[in-house]
Amino acid sequence: MTYLDVIDTAVKVGLGALISGLSSYWMAKSKSQDDFRHEKIKRHHELLEDAAEQIEKFSHVLLRYWALMIEFVRTRQQNQEWAAEKLEELQKTKAELFGAYSELTSAESKFLLLGCREA
Question: Could you give the CA distance from residue 5 to residue 82 in angstroms, rounded to a whole number?
Fold first, then answer.
């Protein structure tokens, strides 16, 4: 075995290691970017789900309040008294509605963070 054979083998091993290292780096970088993109999409989806849930909670309380108010007005138009329990339920629902409004503003903030200006 001559020095030339040793140098030839060393160059081949070195080039193989260099190519292997570069391809490993490129694959790791590509995987990292894909993971980041996937995580970003997942987080975006989670924020949209949270915002939709908050809007649903607000809508539910609003519709319950609306139904009670319609019933209250109709009862008054018929010159009837409303039961004390119903008045108490209306007051509780009114307080709950004001509390639920923060859910709506939180959902709006999430939409703005996500760039959904139309929402």
Answer: 104
Angle between helices 84-113 and 3-77 (to 10 degrees): 150
Please give the Cα distance from 105 to 112 (Å, whole number). Answer: 11
Is the pTM here over 0.85, yes or no?
no
- 119 Cβ contact list (under 8 Å, min separation 6): 108, 111
DSSP assignment of 54-93, as one string?
HHHHHHHHHHHHHHHHHHHHHHHHTT-PPPHHHHHHHHHH
- Residue whose token pair is 């309040």: 65
Q: Record the tokens describing residue 49, joined without a space.
A: 């789900």
Instruction: Report pLDDT digits (tens) over 54-97.
Output: 999 999 999 999 999 999 999 989 988 888 899 999 999 999 99
